[in-house]
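User: My collaborator and I are trying to settle a disagreement about how two of our proteins should look. Neither of us wants to argue from intuition anymore, so we agreed to look at predicted structures for both before our next call. Could you fold the first one, then the second, and keep them clearly separated?

Assistant: That sounds like a sensible way to settle it. I'll keep them separate. The first protein:
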Amino acid sequence: IKAWLLATRHTVRDYLDTVVLLERLGEAGAASAFESFDDLYAQQSGASPLVEVVERLGSAEPSDRAEVDLATYKDLVAPWNDWTHLARRGRQWAKTLARVRLAGGQA
């Protein structure tokens, strides 16, 4: 659900939550969790929700980015209170999830 919120709301909170959850899952867990993402969140247009998540992670520009200071946001601790670190990890996960999408669920 966090990744779906990232695809639809595209806020810092959604970006942060998605990246941290992906970190907890690891590559194999993420591949398993996201292999059916497009089926679970199928769009009438036929667009891939997973591709949208990949694009959002890769761009690292949530809609409220300018208004949120991670250094003081929700008592975050290092390294998650540093935007540079968060964006770097998000971009890495974008690459991983793109491979999942291209491989049909296998990272």
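The second protein, kept apart from the first:
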Amino acid sequence: SCLKSNMFQVEALKKGACLARYMAMKVLLKEGTELRIRISDEDHTTLHLFRSRLNAHKDIEYCNYFSGHPDLDDPEIYIRANKGKDPVKILKSVVKEASKDFSSLSL
């Protein structure tokens, strides 16, 4: 079974368990083709993954993230989809695709 904890447990890796961690997100703006969300407790690695995959998506016009002050601010990601496209659906699709890519890794 998967562990649903923010604590990284090395013993679980040795036993072959799945480590699951949830990402806290808050929607700051959702208007038409624009979406801005705040992502808690994440760093450049995760944000860069989202940005690069979203910018490579055919239905995204622009995507970037803003980290703010490292000790005071949670980073935000801004997404602008092409006219008539839903940025939420695209984000969910990109996250699902990335999850699938990483789930096939073996250690």
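Some points you might bring to the call about the second protein. DSSP finds three helices and six strands in the chain. The beta strands are 3-4, 19-20, 25-31, 34-39, 60-66, 76-81.
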